[in-house]
Amino acid sequence: MNLPDYNFISAPLWLVTVLHIVTLSLHLIAMNFLFGGIIVLIFGKVTNKWENAVVQKFIKLFPNAMAATVSFGVAPLLFVQLVYAKQVYSASIVSGWFWLMIIVVAIITYYLLYASSFAKKTDGKQKVYLTIAMVGLLYISFVYSSVFSLAEKPDLYAALYAQNQSGLVLNTDIGSYLFRWLHMVFGAITVGGFFVGLLGRNDDEVFKLGKNFYLWGMVGSIATGFAYMLGLGEMLKPFMRSPGIWLVTVGFFLSLGSLHFMFKKKFLMSSIMLGVSFLSMVITRHVVRLLALEGFFDPSSLPVNPQWGIFIIFLILFVLMVAVVWYMLKLFFGPQET
């Protein structure tokens, strides 16, 4: 019996890549709103913090933000597995139990966010629930960084699997992804600070809180981002000759511009600059992946067997999902009936 050949991609590589970058960007925006917002609320200092209207509005939105994070996260995960199937599969097998635990941790985190949104703001449980949820999100983000960085090192995951097939092995080359992970954490704090400042723009104390987290989150993100870039090792020279270095430069200056407009409460311009900067960083990450796998795997070598019906269905449903999320946000942030 001839088994079906699955070693192909079901759309042109450029289309899969564009959709991966777009959907990953949307996923990361939702995730950063959630993750960064939780960090800001837990560690930020505001008078009568848990009774503040802006804080409570954030807490009520967290379960929806978690749903958006998961929904927008499915597509980029499938797209990256479509192209880099063998690499991602191999790395996830090496860290199998940590990978599978993401589902369990995500469910518990989701429950805690709902518990926090329904808890009374005076009994102190909201902080406890959010703190445990933050730990859960830290775990998920770290395992993702470990697995996807390991997927870019075929020699390493082959050696690790040969030594240990328990599924209890994380990427041992922690130097290759520690700063990458911290860059994402600080990036989440930056985005969380931006939205706290946006929602608290009419409350001087809350706006100051968001502004400070936005500033220092960006400082931490820039510092860890450059540390990650300098730690690329043998890939640094090829990276400096690639479009990635120009994208980093554009993202850096746009981030500074976004900070300037944030301080002036010009949120539209600040958000546009931040969004474009964010997109440039996602594309840069794609460039780094290509450089890391150079000599091991070339995505352009994959045969293309277009299945346009499936892609059209996906695009229709994707646009509908974005529209529904946009409508939900508009209802939530719009004038409230009393």
Tell me what the structure shows:
With 338 residues, the protein is mostly helical. It has one domain (13-301). The chain has helices at 13-43, 53-83, 85-94, 96-118, 125-150, 154-163, 178-199, 204-230, 236-240, 243-263, 267-292, 308-333. Helix 4 (96-118) packs antiparallel against helix 5.
Main attributes of the structure:
338 residues, mainly alpha, 12 helices, 0% strand, globular
List the helices and strands and how they pair.
Elements: H1 13-43, H2 53-83, H3 85-94, H4 96-118, H5 125-150, H6 154-163, H7 178-199, H8 204-230, H9 236-240, H10 243-263, H11 267-292, H12 308-333
Helix pairs in contact: 1-2, 1-5, 1-7, 1-11, 2-3, 2-4, 3-6, 4-5, 5-7, 7-8, 8-10, 10-11
Question: What does the overall shape look like?
Answer: globular
* Radius of gyration over all CA atoms, rounded: 21 Å
Amino- and carboxy-terminal Cα gap: 67 Å
* Regions with little confidence, pLDDT below 50 for 5+ residues: none
Oligomer: single chain
By secondary-structure content and strand pairing, the structural class works out as: mainly alpha
Total E-strand runs? 0
Helix content: over 70%
Largest sheet at a glance? none
Pattern of helices and strands: HHHHHHHHHHHH
Strand content: under 5%
Contiguous helical run count: 12
Mean pLDDT: 91
Total domain modules: 1
In short:
The protein has about 350 residues and is mainly α. It has helices at about 15-45, 55-85, 85-95, 95-120, 125-150, 155-165, 180-200, 205-230, 235-240, 245-265, 265-290, 310-335.
